[in-house]
Amino acid sequence: MPSHVSISEVGPRDGLQSVKATMPTAHKCAWITALHAAGLREIEVGSFVPARLLPQMADVAEVIRHALTLPGLTVMALVPNLRGAEAAMAAGVHRIALPVSASEAHSLANVRKTREQMVDEVRRIVARRDALAPGVGIEAGVSTAFGCTLQGTVAEDDVLRLAADLARAGADEIGLSDTTGMANPAQVRRLFQRVRAEIGERTGAAHMHNTRGLGLANCLAAYDVGVRTFDSSQGGLGGCPYAPGASGNVVTEDLVYMFESMGVSTGIDLETLMAARAALQAGLPGEPLYGMTPDAGLGRDFVYADGRTPRDGRLGAAGTAA
Question: Which letter does DSSP use for residue 18 in this model?
Fold first, then answer.
């Protein structure tokens, strides 16, 4: 069994864009620092979208400046278009994420462009990246790859065609996103296998939502067919403002627990990660957080993949006996 997977924390972007409250900048920076202290080495810290649409992201450049001071951290931001990509590169990000929907209805609602127009936008962004900041990675996430609450069924052939178009447009990686939480493990396994057969090693991350309780099962299905990078959100925060019914991401704490207990290293310390929830709660008081592992604790027999045992025995994040 391969010994390591990468966890990309998307809470500071995907999570915060989905709640009504706006977390103060200082609290965002404190939360990102706490996530970094737990061992997370890739964090999507925000998005470059108009503040009138997502006021929660108005301070993204300032947050990036802070994140860039954390050693070894890959700083990622989401952008919907060339203008956002230029701003992200100017801010100094290491990676850019672009949402490109396999559902035409969702694409028009989310970015007001057709799928073909978004592929053209990716091509322009790649050209500008090559000219201005060749070291910046570009990841295209195929949104609504497993179904859409606006359109309904999304044909797998449409996903394959879009992934191939994005690869030809120059995206470094193309991941699959269960934006609306409609995926099941058999579907995840099949579609990732088909995409890998189509675009090979450019196949990127699995971005799963837990809308119907299948988030971890879908991550495990993706792992079984070779996926090694997974997006998740602390406390399960997240969703999509333009996908009705979409709710939270896979909980980072539960995802890390699953892999570590399987003997697959994430490089993340669970006790420190669960303690980071305090920074999140301080910035969003009253916002409900989810996760089975923080509630139950690590358990008497839990051992990290590298052989370490928990420092605090069976205590959970709240300090109560599991």
Answer: G
